[in-house]
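ok so I'm stuck.
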Amino acid sequence: MSTSIDIKSPVKAAVKVKRETLGVWIEIPCVDKVGTCTYDDLCVHSIPANRTCPKTFTDNDVPCRCPIPKGTYTIDPSIELQVEMYNYFSAYSGKYWAHLSLSEEGVNLITCYEVNFVIEDHKPKTINDIPFVELI
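replied:
not stuck anymore, here's the structure
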C-alpha cells in the first residue's frame, strides 16, 4: 500500500466478499459486521492501542491502527494469518474473493484492494490450536 496522505479517522470502508460454492461465486451477506459490509469508520475496528500489532505487521513496519502516516507499506502476499474462529470453522473453509475500497468520510477515494484467499480447516488437536487464513 502506498499513500501520499496521512490516513486518519474516519475512514469509510466498503467490503464485498464472495465465496466459491460448487463453481459459483456467491456474495456473503453482512452478518455481525462480517461479510459484504460497509463500515463508517474502519479505524474503530483496528487493533486497540493497548495491544501489540501482529508480528507480520511489526516485522514489516506496517501500522495496524489509525492514524497511518503517509508512506509505502508492504506485506508478502503469501502470508498466513491466524484467526480466532472457535465454532464451526469447517463451515467457513473454502475459496474467497474480496474487494475493499477505502475513502475519507465516504467522499475521497483513498485506495482499493482485491484479494483472493483460502480458509482451511486444520482440524485442531486441542482447543488451543487456532486455524489460519492463507492469502493466495
